[in-house]
Every structure is written in structure tokens, then in C-alpha cells.
Request: fold
Amino acid sequence: MLENLKSQLISLLNELPKNNLVCLTSGNVSLRDVNTGLILIKPSGMPFEDIHESDIVVLKGNGEVVEGARKPSSDTLSHLFIYRQMKEINGVVHTHSNYATSFAALGWSIPVFVTETAEEFGGEIPCSNFVLIGDEKIGEQVVRYAKHSKSVLLNKHGVFTIGETGRRAVDLAILTENSARVAWLALQLGNPEKIEPEDVARLYARQQNVYGQ
Reply:
């Protein structure tokens, strides 16, 4: 079932350790099939290098397992909540990347110190309220803050990114960590000034509407 999408999910999962966004078995990626509405997600607690297509869990939007013998990610209920609330989202990524999570540990948003953050996120990367993991509460926080950013720091926990595709959600996870790293380094050197909101809006509009092919 959905073999092409399973192959894509394996490829995207491998991007997380490749880009130093996770440690051991932490983190996850899910994809929604636009034709059937079925959701594919990483199995819980498995090392990324050991995951094969047969390990991927396929679920309905209500959480009913359609295919797969593995237990799905412990964040599954939050992924499902995001998909139910945001019909345009087809990819969700969760990481514990070091620099971004250090901001989350402090309850800080990632400021717009550089143009890349403005271009990709359209503003600061917000930090949510603190909630416990295991049910829909993280998903509720992501949806709440997604009005302003498709990347959200989970207070004291990590990062969730969402995208129209899984590839975009993974890219945003990589860019979130890069923005956090640059912000952290800048703060070690001095007191960087934030880019003015009107300039952030111009940079974001240009990136979304002019840049690229």
C-alpha cells in the first residue's frame, strides 16, 4: 500500500540524522496521501537506519491502523490532530535539534536577526506553551502558532514543522536549526538587532513570490 509514499518517507526520515536534527531514536516524520487521506508515520522507538518500508505504519485520520505491525510514533495523536485541522498540510516533522531546542529550553522564540529567517518564516519562530507529550496537546500548540509560522518550538521539548509536502516540512526543520544556530552565535558576539517588521514582510514576500524557478 502506497509504496511510493513509503519510499519517500524513508528518504525524508534519513534526512533528520544526516542533518544532525535528532539523537538516537528521537524525532519523526509523517506524510498524508492527498488521494486517500491516509497517513504514514515512523514507527516508535526504532533507530532511523533500521527502518524499512515494511516498518512504516499507515493510519486513517481517526488513528485506526490500516497497515503495519509496528507501534506508531508516540507523537501520532498530535500529527493526526494537525492533519485534521489543517487540510493544506501534507507533511509534519518533529526534531530535537540542538540549537533550536536550546531556545525552546528557555522558552524563547528565535528572533529575526538575519534575512534567511525573514525569507523562510516571515517572522520569528515562536515558542509554544509547555505541554506534556503523548496526546493531542502538542498538535494543539502547533496549530495555534501555525497562524504565524510553519515552524514552532515546543517549550522545553523540541521543534515541529509543517508543510504542504513532506519535503517542505523537512526543509523547514533544517532551516529552523540553521536560524537557531546563527541566532545563538550572534548572541555570543554581541547584541544583534532584529530586522524591522516591514522589512521582514518585504523579504518574505520576495522569497515566496520572486525567488527561484
About this structure: The helical segments are 3-18, 76-85, 98-106, 115-121, 137-145, 166-189, 197-209. Strands lie at 28-32, 39-41, 57-59, 65-67, 91-95, 151-154, 158-163. The chain has a mean pLDDT of 96. The longest strand covers residues 158-163.
